[in-house]
Structure formats: structure tokens, C-alpha cells
Design a protein that fits this description.
Strand content: 15-25%
Strand order of the largest sheet: 3-2-1-6-5-4
Largest sheet: 6 strands, antiparallel
Order of helices and strands: HHHEEEHEEEHEEEEHHHEHHEEHHEEEHH
Structural class: alpha+beta
Oligomer: single chain
Number of helices: 14
Distance between the termini: 99 Å
Number of domains: 2
CATH architecture of the largest domain: 2-Layer Sandwich
Radius of gyration: 49 Å
Helix content: 55-70%
CATH topology of the largest domain: Beta-Lactamase
């Protein structure tokens, strides 16, 4: 059977895979680019349309707020129809509105005129005022109000601003019109005024339609796209020209409504979209081919360098499997090989730490973190050999937590565990220079040597003080901590082995335990608890 080197297999596999990927990606790109461009184009013109419409609506919305504010100024000054019908009061209202409206108009973008007109039925056909910017002026000039009596109601270009809100009985936006009074194209927003349910006049503002036209002109959609405005589906203006015709089927269109009842329509040419598709597809194909060629060259160059370190990695994995965690770093200028080398070393480190942790868990009490019984037996075996060899001086303290059973029975094992942990903390912090063991459920042991042995009495006094003030809290109650202790010191003349010292300390602990149970507060505490419980039981029976 013919075999090939790993280098040959590596190169053959990678290059074949790369060629297959190139063909697949190239074909998929051509297939998918159409949908991608369609989506991106729609998203682009949608976002553009929404943004432009929002900007226009902000302007129109500001004008609506301004006109509504002007109407509010007038109505706040009118208490009844008598105020309107009274000429002096009416003139006073007009003077007040003249002052207030000027400030509002100056802060409303795009405004070319503002006005108030009272109904001819109340006064005459020219009562009110009219301010306008004329001949490109930035200042408002007061002009003579239009005489309503001279024109027919249907003459939109001259008096539509008055009669349309009158007939609608609500605020209206007037479609773009050429105002012959001002000689300008404009859009008007007019609010009718009512007092005691009777029409008394209008307030309004005129917006420069040419400003809106300029904004539409500035909207660009790719090379051949454009924007235009519609009213009731009829195009009235485009960014190309004011009067235009086009074939909608040749364009991708989106629209957004404006608050002045116009519609902003954006059109993207399908010719532009097809050109974008072609350019993107070509770019993708070129990119894929270049990347494939570069990758193949790099692969050929790197395979030789990769094979050698791979052999070393194989050897390292065998050592690791045999339990040899001393994995040497593998020198390579290949990043991936370096990562693998580091990974092997980290794995070996974690295995060593795992072994150490397992050893620690085997020799540590899971509840208190102190050395456990297993640790105690191993430690004592080595310690006893050392004592016999060197006649070392030492002492043993045996400690036992009182009333653990009562706490478990009354408050539960979680409370009992809290008591054990609290006792362990006091013991370990008091005798912090000595090995401390938990050798039973409620039993602890300390081996005293050197300074702890010399200062035994001081340490015991400190220990008793800590126990006196210590407690655990359970169900809102403070449970005292009571620990009996017994001490014995190694006597070279009488003690044959460590067990002799331990027995004397253990016996002393039990003597101390009996004395504590006879006299200490914890016994009284549980007696009182039992008395209260018994009394409650009697009361329930009665």
C-alpha cells in the first residue's frame, strides 16, 4: 500500500479544499449579491427618506406650534364676543398680537409671512394685520391686509388662506400656491379662531415653498436617482425639475408622508442598482481569488515548518499520557504551534494542581477548612517518630463543643454547622501557630509546641474570653458558644507514646465538660427554652 508523507497530504488537502471553497464562494457571491444589493439599496433609500421627511416635518411642526401659539395669545385676550365686537377692544387685541406675533415669527424657520384677520361679519373686510418678507428681505414689513370683499371664495391664490380653514372648521395646510399678493410660491398653515362657538377670524403663517424645493433638490440617490413631492399621488416637484415625467417601473421607490399632507418620494434607478451589483460581485470574486492564491502560497511555505514541531507535540502528548507533566516548551515561529505548546504546559500545570487539590481535599475538613481525621492520623504518625528521635517537648489540647445535639434538635443541622464553624474559628485564631485538627463531629485537637506551648496559659485565657463573648444568631436568638477543653503536656518519664498524652488531655476535657454543663449559661439557656416550650404546650391543651 502506497503511503504519502504528512507534508504531501497536508498540501493536497488544503489546496484542494481552498480551490473548492473558491469556486463555491465565487458562485454563491454571484447568486447572493443580487439580494444583498436589493436589501442594502432599500435600506439606504428608506433611511434617507425617513431622515429627510423627519427634517421637513420638524420644520412644519415648528410652524404648527407657532401658529397654534399665536392663536392662543389672541384667545387668552378675548373673554367674550363683546370684546371682538367692540372696536376699541378689538384694536387693543390687534396691537397686543402685533407685539407677540413678531417674536414667534422670528424664531420660526422658513416663515415668509404671518397674519391675523378678523371676520368681516364682526368688523370689516380688512381688520387685522399682515407682515411679509418681500424682495428677498430678512425683515418683516407690514403690508395692507387683503380686502376679502374684492375676491371670490374660490380664489385660492389670493384669499384661500382665509376661506379654507373657515370652511374646514379646523387648522389646515394649504397646498403650494402662487400668492399673487406677495408674488411668491408658498405653503400656508392657518388656524381658525372661535369665541363662544362663533367664528371670529384666522391666524396663520406662510412657508417659503422655494426653501422646500431647494431641500428636495439636494437629495441625491446614487447617480440617476432623484426625489420628488406628491399630493394625492400627483407629482408636483422633483429634484431634477419642477415639471417632469418618468417611468416608475424603472425605479425602486420609497415614500414618507409629511404632516402638511404632502408625500416625499425617493426613486433609485434600477440601472444604478445593477451597476452596484456588478461592481460588488466583481470585487468579491477578485478578493476571493487573491485570498486563495495568497493562502496557497503561505500554505506551501509553512507546511515544512509545521511538520517538525508537530512531531515534537506528538512526543509531548505521549509524555503527558504517561504521567510525565514536565513538558518542555516547543520552539517554533508558528503561532499555532506556540499556542499548542503553551496549552500542553498549562494542561500539565493544571494536572499537577489537580493532584495537589485532591490531596488537599483528602486532608481538609470540608465544613471548617481545618485538618481532618485523615490528616491527623498521618501527622501524628510522623510526629511521634520525631518525638521519639529528638525527645521533643509538646502539649495536647482536646476541645469539645457543648450542646451541639440540643442545637441540632431545636434549630436544625444548619444551625449546628454554624456552631461548629464558629467554634473552629475561635480555636484556629487563638492557637494560630499550632496545627489544629477536627477529629470528630464536635471534637477538635491542637498540638502545642515552642512559643504556643510556652504561652499556653495566656492563650487559654484569651480562648476563654473569646468563648464568653461569642455567639451565633439563629431565628433572632443569640446562642452562646460553649467549648470544653483539656490539656496535657508530654512527660518524658511517664509517657511511653503520644496516646498517653492524648488520653490525659481527653480525660481532663471530659471533667471540664461536666463542670461547664453544671454551671454555665448555655445550660440555663436551654432549660429556659424547654420551660417556655412546656408552658406553651400546656396552654394549647387547655
Amino acid at each position: 500500500m502506497k503511503t504519502h508523507s504528512i507534508q504531501f497530504k497536508f498540501l493536497t488537502t488544503i489546496i484542494s479544499a481552498m480551490l473548492a471553497i473558491t469556486v463555491f464562494v465565487g458562485g454563491l457571491s454571484i447568486y447572493e449579491v443580487d439580494k444583498f444589493v436589493q436589501y442594502q439599496t432599500e435600506n439606504f433609500i428608506n433611511v434617507t427618506c425617513e431622515k429627510e421627511a423627519a427634517q421637513m416635518n420638524d420644520i412644519f411642526g415648528d410652524m404648527e406650534k407657532s401658529v397654534n401659539l399665536m392663536g392662543g395669545y389672541v384667545l387668552d385676550f378675548v373673554d367674550s364676543m363683546a370684546d371682538i365686537e367692540d372696536r376699541e377692544k378689538r384694536d387693543e387685541i390687534i396691537r397686543y398680537a402685533d407685539r407677540m406675533f413678531a417674536d414667534v415669527a422670528n424664531y420660526t424657520a422658513g416663515t415668509v409671512a404671518y397674519y391675523i384677520r378678523f371676520a368681516p361679519e364682526i368688523s370689516d373686510s380688512q381688520t387685522g394685520f399682515f407682515y411679509s418678507k418681500i424682495d428677498g428681505s430678512e425683515e418683516y414689513i407690514r403690508l395692507e391686509p387683503t380686502n376679502l370683499a374684492l375676491y371670490d371664495k374660490d380664489d385660492t391664490e389670493r384669499v384661500g388662506w382665509y376661506w379654507q380653514p373657515y370652511e374646514a372648521q379646523k387648522p389646515v395646510w394649504i397646498e403650494p400656491y402662487y400668492n399673487k399678493n406677495n408674488d411668491i410660491m408658498m405653503i400656508s398653515y392657518v388656524v381658525p379662531l372661535y369665541c363662544e362657538n362663533q367664528f371670529i377670524g384666522v391666524v396663520g403663517m406662510d412657508f417659503d415653498y422655494n426653501a422646500l424645493v431647494e431641500k428636495v433638490h439636494n437629495i441625491k440617490i446614487y447617480e440617476n436617482g432623484f426625489a420628488h413631492l406628491e399630493i394625492d399621488g400627483v407629482a408636483i416637484h422633483s429634484s431634477e425639475n419642477e415639471f417632469f415625467s418618468y417611468e416608475p417601473e424603472n425605479y425602486l421607490q420609497v415614500s414618507a408622508g409629511l404632516i402638511n399632507e404632502m408625500t416625499l418620494v425617493l426613486s433609485a434607478s434600477y440601472d444604478d442598482i445593477r451597476q452596484i451589483r456588478y461592481e460588488i460581485a466583481l470585487q468579491i470574486l477578485i478578493t476571493v481569488l487573491v485570498l486563495a492564491a495568497v493562502f496557497c502560497l503561505i500554505t506551501i511555505m509553512m507546511v515544512g515548518k509545521i511538520v517538525k514541531p508537530l512531531k515534537k507535540l506528538t512526543d509531548a502528548s505521549k509524555k503527558l499520557a504517561d504521567g510525565d507533566y514536565n513538558v518542555d516548551p516547543i520552539c517554533s515561529d508558528t503561532y499555532e504551534i506556540q499556542l499548542l505548546s503553551i496549552a500542553f504546559q498549562n494542561m500539565a500545570k493544571r494536572l499537577r494542581e489537580h493532584e495537589k487539590l485532591q490531596h488537599l481535599l483528602a486532608y481538609r475538613d470540608s465544613l471548617t477548612g481545618l485538618r481532618n481525621t485523615t490528616s491527623y492520623k498521618a501527622w501524628i504518625t510522623d510526629f511521634e517518630k520525631e518525638v521519639q528521635k529528638n525527645n521533643a517537648d509538646y502539649g495536647v489540647i482536646v476541645l469539645d463543643v457543648n450542646y451541639l445535639k440540643e442545637v441540632n434538635d431545636r434549630y436544625g443541622h444548619d444551625a449546628g454547622n454554624k456552631l461548629i464553624v464558629a467554634a473552629a474559628r475561635i480555636i484556629s485564631t487563638t492557637f494560630k501557630r499550632s496545627p489544629v485538627f477536627r477529629i470528630g463531629g464536635d471534637e477538635f485537637l491542637v498540638i502545642l509546641q515552642n512559643s504556643d506551648l510556652a504561652n499556653y496559659e495566656e492563650l487559654c485565657e484569651k480562648f476563654d474570653m473569646e468563648c464568653t463573648s461569642a455567639y451565633i444568631e439563629e431565628n433572632g436568638e443569640h446562642l452562646p458558644i460553649s467549648i470544653a477543653r483539656g490539656f496535657a503536656r508530654y512527660d518524658l518519664d511517664t509517657d511511653v507514646q503520644y496516646a498517653d498524652v492524648f488520653k490525659r488531655a481527653d480525660d481532663e476535657m471530659y471533667v471540664h465538660k461536666r463542670k461547664m454543663k453544671e454551671s454555665q449559661a448555655l445550660r440555663q439557656f436551654f432549660r429556659e427554652k424547654n420551660r417556655v416550650q412546656l408552658q406553651e404546650s400546656k396552654e394549647e391543651l387547655v
